[in-house]
Amino acid sequence: IHKTLLKKNIDVPKILYCSKGQTPFRYGFMLMEYVEGVSGWTAMREGKIALDEYFVRLGEILRRVHDIKITGSAPIKATHPKGQYQWFKPVVKDLAAKVGLSNEVGARIQDFVIRTLTLFLPRFKNVLCHCDVGPQNQIYTPDGSIVLFDWDLAEVGSLFRDFSVVLMDKKEMRYLGKADDISASIQKAFLKGYGKTGFTVEEIQRIIDAHHVISLVYNTLAFVESGKNRVQEKKNMALIRNILKKYSQ
Predict the structure, then answer these.
(1) pLDDT digits over 43-85, tens only?
(2) Diameter over CA atoms, the chain
(3) Which phi and psi angles does 219 have, rounded to 5°?
(4) Theoretical Cys-Cys bridge with 173: which of 14, 161, 179, 233, CB 3.0 to 4.6 Å?
(5) Packing angle between helix 201-226 and helix 103-120, nearest 10 degrees?
(6) pLDDT tens for residues 202-214?
(7) Residue 16: Cβ within 10 Å count
(8) Measured between alpha carbons, how far is 226 from 30 in angstroms, rounded to an integer?
(9) CA neighbours closer than 13 Å in the CB half-sphere of residue 26
């Protein structure tokens, strides 16, 4: 991935050393060059770059990333093997058991995600996704470049695998204004930079909501399993219910 990104002139830190050996770290380690600058969110909070300009440029960058052709021999896993979403059923079942969800709520979570993504599956194109591409994983440099790092979660998926993550961090958005207003501005600016997606505004919102439900389910499981932050666990479940409510009629 790193070599391909460099060939496409996409700004990423250079890898100085990489090892999959288990000594001294269990999963190996990577040493990358130091990149001068601040995180994307910090750059926007400090007024180094306007929010709209930042996300237009991020949209342009991700379009270039997503234009990279994925071959059948590429050594990278798919977000949804064989394009199916049945893998989500045991995840919801696990959540239901650990937080005491009713069968009705569990079924609604499962059905909304699977039906939504399956509906649009024939129109999805497999692209290279960063999968954690929020501004916290970007450096805004003194010369005005946006450098994307932390590619260890990269997978093959649809463009919405990345776009949904861009719209997840409500906490950071609140530093810049009302979260819902900032989210709407981010979405508009990102799509301006990204260009045509082949989906309507309504379709995009539904697909993003489905991906947000998936993220919230996994985040909630992480909180439950760690035994920490029960407040955030409850907030996540409230967010899931609010999304489901939008599509209940």
Answers:
(1) 999 999 999 999 999 999 999 999 998 877 667 777 665 657 8
(2) 55
(3) -65, -40
(4) 179
(5) 140
(6) 999 999 999 999 9
(7) 10
(8) 27
(9) 0
